[in-house]
Amino acid sequence: MKMMLFAVLALYPMMVFGRVPHSRKVLHEELNEIPPPEKYDGDVLSDNSKDFQMQMKDWVKVSLNTPKVMAVQVGDRIEIECEALGGPKPTLAWNKGLHARPIIYEETNNVNGMSLGRIISRLRFDCIQPEDEGMYSCSAASGAEFATSHHTMIFVHNKNGSQSNNCKSENRHRPHIDQWTPILMEVIGNDITLQCISSGNPIPEVFWLDKDEKLVENGADSRFKILETGDLLIRKLRWSDMGSYTCIAQNAAGQAKETSFVYPMSEWIYSSGVQE
């Protein structure tokens, strides 16, 4: 069980930094640099017991990976990226204006296990217009916890004094994956959903490759299903499901792909209702 705990800690820097440490020494150095989640309240009940138990509150962190001010020209193609990390797996939404719009989400106090997830979302303007000018932020929710990023102000300068359809992006019709789950850690036996939201013109078709790089086909395995949204549903997670799954969005103009890493965990007790 201690090996399982170390494996979880080893994956945590990958969720934050997007990579796996090269050595145990580097792992400890990076863990020391990671601020503990504000709502974390770990309580090891029995270190030697086979039924290793942990209690953790819902927690979420969100960041906007863009400058606080952006000045662009009408017709430019720009992209801003938001990242959320939390337990359980967070949901994410974009906001325009000073006040964040609330996210509709459900509390997960009855989830058995320890769920951790990382979500990345990109807001893309293929041909930005004056009406797109404004202040943008992103919000994330994990269970009962909610957080909003800093704001980015986008100024749209208009050289000609009128709207322009002369977009600078030559590949604006190619598919893009706008939101996905780079990593998801979930308890064995639970159902999971790997997110893959795509866009393009024409609307892209979404495919998934499993951990063995084989095409996922609906009906071939009752535990795996590609939903109408493009997300991949895996029912009754198994240890053997651990690995990287690839979402591919494809249309006549090209394709885009992103990878999600799934880490099944043995059953721990997860409680978001721990008192202060």
From TrEMBL:
Signal sequence region: 1-18
UniProt KW keywords: Disulfide bond, Immunoglobulin domain, Signal
PROSITE patterns found in the cross-reference section: IG_LIKE (PS50835)
CDD domains in UniProt: Ig (cd00096)
GO biological process: homophilic cell adhesion via plasma membrane adhesion molecules
Domain Ig-like: 75-154, 175-260
Domain of life: Eukaryota
SUPFAM superfamilies registered for this protein in UniProt: Immunoglobulin
Any one cellular-component term (Gene Ontology): plasma membrane
InterPro entries: Cell_Adh-Cytoskel_Orgn, Ig-like_dom, Ig-like_dom_sf, Ig-like_fold, Ig_I-set, Ig_sub, Ig_sub2
Protein name: Ig-like domain-containing protein
Species whose genome carries this gene: Laodelphax striatellus
